Amino acid sequence: MVAKAHQRANAIHRAFVSRDPSLLVRAFLVYVRPLVEHNSIVSSPHLKQDIEAVESVQRRFTRRLPGFKKFSYTERLKRLNLPSLELGRLHCNLLSGIFLDPPRGGYTPDFQSTPLQFKKKKYPPPTLGGVINY
Q: What is the pLDDT of residues 64-74, one digit of tens each?
């Protein structure tokens, strides 16, 4: 997964003629981030070396952006307004905990007492050139 993410990040740097950081970051968010964040709930890395390997994808990509090489990783993230991948995983894990295991004693909607009612719309039969086929 990490190797494929590095390949895609490198492909973005090679493919775009423009060196506008906002454009490159947008491409990274669209093409690379989903690959790294996919199944983050199930396969959330907990070993330090695994977390560093996943985070290295974004670290290397942001370092290669024009004008960002001299900044630290946290400073690059602040300037680009990006969250770290570790923070995104934590956020996703917290949300999954809330939705998969709702709090006891709190509000839980009762779906049994108010069933949803859908009315089926009746459309006229299709016609071919004004001729009705039955």
A: 999 999 999 99
Tokens of residue 21, six digits: 């950081």
CA distances from 5 to 39, 42, 90, 104, 116 (A): 14, 18, 20, 40, 43
Alpha helices in 16-47 (DSSP H): 21-31, 33-37
pTM: 0.64
Alpha carbon distance 88, 77 (integer Å)? 13
What's phi and psi for 69, nearest 5 deg? -65, -30
Residue with tokens 């719309």: 121
Residue 131's DSSP bridge partners are: 128
Strand partners for 29: none
Q: What are the residues whose beta carbons fall under 8 Å from the beta carbon of 65, sequence distance 6 or more?
A: 21, 24, 25, 76, 80
Q: What are 34's two structure tokens?
A: 């989903």
HSE toward the beta carbon, residue 3, CA cutoff 13 A: 0
